[in-house]
Predict the structure.
Amino acid sequence: FSALGAGWWLDQETLSSLIPDATEEEVERPNFTFEQVPIGENIVALLDRAATVGLPVQAGVIDPALFTMERMTLSNVTFLQALVELLKRCPDAFAWWNYTTNPPSLNVARRGTAEVLSLDLDADHFVNDISLKRRTVLKAAAATVHFAERLPSGGIMLNEDDSEKTRASLTTAMGGTNKDIVLTARRPGSVGNDITFAIHEDT
């Protein structure tokens, strides 16, 4: 026997929506447009569409404090891939499935502020020694800045700047020394669209 979870079902179906054709008749197309609203509203819209096409999923408790995202259209992706793209836009959000409901429901929340934990090092509290180890695997490999540029034609072009490419060149140029570097990124030919962010180089 195999147990198939809600995520598996979402990954089996291509995301689609009904779009009017030249005769104003609605035709199913393999793309979906997410509006410029809080991410949670788009997650609910995605799950509602999944339920409409017959997938056994539903929206649960979605945190209303998720960021407002840019308008975005995805094409030729599965429902699961679209869900991942939405969650990427709020890095401190986490999601989990509640299988006590029928069908399973997706909950999304933002992480709270970490609390300070104090431990007493004595025999009465059964703590005699503490060993702390850095978990470098949890360090972000890069920071990507997403931004939108309004074109003279009125359209919007989505762009991104990836600090991973910059980090590689800076490390080579500076010999891997520890320094804080403020980078101003400008795409060739662009004016007034500079993005400034800091990069800290570790040896």
Q: What stands out?
A: The chain has four helices and eleven strands.
